[in-house]
């Protein structure tokens, strides 16, 4: 079978980005682990070689095991037996193969039996697994919870829980409840402290919890009696060994069937507080969700890659009117647009991953020693970028994933509507990406700060000033024109918004403004990619054309819009 890493040159291209030198240096701290662990890298080249070789193993497992299992898992699905989840046979096989290969807990430090991988190669592994089976990617990807434990838990908790991941422990992230979906401030699951036992207990219900029967769960619960907002919430670790959480049911879903979505009942479930009380939602869940949003970004790109490949293969093979359908402009245009969106999504995925890598590495260094002034400023810069790029990535990658899967099915036409081709499953799997970890509308709520604070514009200006291939100066000129239109749109919305005593006008146009910034940012990213490798030229050209038309139409819409128009839309 195919090796999903080796058969895709784009992975190595992004792995070899110039910023990796800085990331590896920060992550490996002068390669001090080399004297303690025989598998720790000796220098930059050695580290890069180890990422490359590990991703090759991931690619092989994806091609040989996970992808061939995907259809069977989709048909079989998980079950609940005696309040516990039993995975589909293929899911259990996939998990065992990745555990045996040492691929759980990849980003954890070596002292916890991890590989100390930066986020970039870890996210690449997530992309590969998602291309093989988007549903299984959730079970594997929930190792993100280990990263949150590593960041915020006590020394004792880290020593207790983190080494279990390398041995194959699975995790869950228990946030959502029947009345607390997008609005997590409404969480009600009760955490009660028993002072005589020095023990917390959890009682209540969670719903829609992926892999809810996992070994280690991070649970958001109300620890402060009498409160009703986010300030009364804390985060807890629940260990499955207590057997105090029952899986009441698994949801019957449209897609990602292999990923068990559970309704959970907590009955006096013993739990450990993570970090400080009241910081559960404000600090820890925000960090956990940002990691998970990056994971859904990777999942979206992986599913989109699979869907694009299916569409391309079918278009070459299917003949109508005496020729392969790929020869019709209507079909090849669809495929080229799909490829451009895929390349743009992947570029913003790895750009965001690099930003997260730099600031997280500084964060961990700051736990060991104090950072100097320059380091502090650098950390702040990358943290701000990560904060505004994460929702932008999640929004675009998930929406593009759906569009790519939709168009791929359209290329398959009637055959795609049948269960005979994988595209039917891929369309169903794609649909969740713009819903969980915050819907697209909630990503806009987070991303609009990037517009109003000028953070996107600041980064656009940095890209604008960077060294780009002079041959493609005309594309920079187009992107500059798009930026001028974006600035005009922001000014117009701000001016009208300021005339009201509410923010409805800004909220009404928020998605348009965020998308305008996104098209410009991804246009520059593809132009930077084209400067490094000409193979991205077509995608860049097509994406910038697409973006130019979008930005112009959004500006027109905003220019013709007035405050009183909101009344037309209000229901
Ligand atoms: C398959 C699956 C797996 C999941 N896994 C997990 C998991 O592992 N852990 C977990 O904790 N949760 C999980 N969830 C829950 C998921 O994160 C929520 O479903 C999601 O955040 C949306 O919440 P909701 O479904 O209650 O929708 P609602 O919050 O009711 O939203 C309904 C609609 O209103 C819109 N809306 C709501 N608020 C606003 C606003 N302020 N501005 C604009 N629009 C708004 C939404 O965009 C949406 O269109 C999972 C869900 C599914 C379907």
List the helices and strands and how they pair.
Blueprint: H1 9-15, H2 20-28, H3 44-76, E1 79-81, E2 84-86, H4 89-100, H5 119-132, H6 134-141, H7 144-152, H8 155-166, E3 171-174, E4 190-194, E5 199-210, E6 216-222, E7 233-239, E8 245-250, E9 261-274, H9 280-317, E10 319-320, E11 323-324, H10 329-368, H11 373-412, H12 414-417, H13 423-430, H14 440-452, H15 455-465, H16 473-498, H17 504-532, H18 537-559, H19 566-569
Bound molecules: flavin-adenine dinucleotide.
Give a description of the structure.
The strands form three sheets. Strands 3, 4, 5, 6, 7, 8 and 9 form a seven-stranded mixed beta sheet that branches. A two-stranded antiparallel ribbon has the order 1-2. The chain has a two-stranded antiparallel ribbon with strand order 10-11. 60% of the residues lie in helices and 11% in strands. It is of the alpha+beta class and 571 residues long. The protein folds into three domains: 9-168 and 282-430, Butyryl-CoA Dehydrogenase, subunit A, domain 3 (Up-down Bundle); 171-277, Butyryl-CoA Dehydrogenase, subunit A, domain 2 (Beta Barrel); 453-565, Up-down Bundle (Four Helix Bundle (Hemerythrin (Met), subunit A)), CATH 1.20.120.470. It has helices at residues 9-15, 20-28, 44-76, 89-100, 119-132, 134-141, 144-152, 155-166, 280-317, 329-368, 373-412, 414-417, 423-430, 440-452, 455-465, 473-498, 504-532, 537-559, 566-569, and strands at residues 79-81, 84-86, 171-174, 190-194, 199-210, 216-222, 233-239, 245-250, 261-274, 319-320, 323-324. The protein is built from 19 helices and eleven strands. The mean pLDDT is 97. The chain binds flavin-adenine dinucleotide (FAD). Flavin-adenine dinucleotide (FAD) binds next to strand 3, strand 5 and helix 14.
């Amino acid at each position: 079978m195919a090796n999903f890493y080796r058969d895709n040159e784009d992975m190595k291209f992004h792995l070899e980005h110039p910023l990796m030198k800085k990331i590896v240096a920060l992550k490996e701290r002068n390669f001090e682990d080399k004297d303690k662990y025989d598998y720790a890298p000796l220098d930059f080249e050695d580290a890069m070689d180890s990422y490359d070789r590990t991703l090759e193993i991931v690619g092989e497992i994806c091609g040989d095991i996970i992808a061939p299992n995907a259809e069977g898992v989709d048909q079989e699905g998980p079950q609940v037996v005696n309040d516990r989840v039993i995975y589909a046979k293929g899911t259990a096989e996939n998990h065992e193969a990745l555990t045996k290969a040492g691929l759980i807990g990849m980003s954890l430090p070596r002292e916890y039996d991890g590989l100390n991988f930066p986020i970039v190669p870890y996210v690449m592994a997530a992309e590969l697994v998602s291309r093989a089976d988007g549903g299984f990617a959730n079970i594997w990807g929930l190792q993100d919870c280990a990263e949150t434990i590593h960041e915020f838990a006590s020394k004792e908790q880290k020593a207790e829980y983190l080494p279990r991941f390398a041995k194959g422990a699975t995790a869950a992230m228990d946030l959502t409840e029947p009345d607390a979906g997008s609005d997590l401030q409404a969480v009600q699951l009760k955490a009660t402290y028993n002072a005589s036992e020095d023990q917390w207990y959890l009682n209540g219900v969670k719903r829609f919890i992926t892999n809810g029967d996992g070994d280690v769960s991070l649970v958001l619960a109300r620890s402060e009696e009498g409160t009703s907002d986010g300030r009364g919430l804390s985060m807890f670790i629940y260990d499955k060994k207590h057997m105090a959480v029952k899986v009441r049911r698994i949801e019957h879903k449209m897609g990602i069937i292999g990923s068990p979505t559970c309704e959970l009942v907590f009955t006096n479930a013993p739990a450990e507080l993570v970090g400080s009380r009241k910081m559960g939602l404000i600090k820890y869940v925000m960090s956990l969700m940002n990691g998970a949003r990056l994971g859904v970004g990777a999942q979206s790109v992986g599913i989109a890659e699979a869907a694009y490949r299916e569409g391309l293969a079918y278009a070459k093979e299917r003949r109508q009117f005496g020729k392969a359908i790929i020869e019709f402009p209507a079909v090849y245009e669809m495929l080229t647009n799909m490829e451009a969106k895929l390349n743009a999504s992947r570029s913003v995925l790895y750009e965001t991953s690099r930003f997260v890598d730099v600031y997280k590495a500084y964060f961990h260094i700051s736990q060991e020693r104090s950072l100097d002034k320059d380091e502090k400023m650098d950390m702040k810069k990358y943290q701000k970028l990560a904060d505004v790029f994460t929702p932008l990535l999640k929004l675009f990658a998930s929406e593009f994933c759906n569009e790519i899967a939709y168009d791929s099915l359209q290329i398959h036409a009637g055959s795609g509507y049948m269960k005979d081709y994988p595209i039917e499953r891929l369309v169903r799997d794609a649909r969740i990406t713009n819903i969980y970890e915050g819907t697209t509308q909630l990503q806009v709520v987070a991303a609009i700060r990037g517009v109003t604070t000028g953070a996107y514009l600041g980064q656009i200006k940095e890209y604008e000033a960077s060294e780009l291939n002079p041959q493609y100066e005309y594309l920079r000129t187009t992107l500059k024109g798009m930026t001028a239109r974006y600035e005009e749109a922001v000014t117009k919305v701000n001016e009208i918004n300021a005339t009201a005593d509410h923010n409805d006008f800004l909220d009404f146009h928020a998605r348009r403004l965020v998308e305008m910034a996104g098209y410009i940012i991804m246009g520059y990213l593809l132009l930077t990619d084209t400067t490094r490798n000409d193979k991205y030229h077509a995608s860049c050209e097509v994406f910038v054309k697409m973006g130019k038309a979008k930005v112009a139409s959004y500006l027109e819409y905003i220019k013709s819009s007035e405050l009183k128009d909101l009344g037309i839309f209000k229901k």
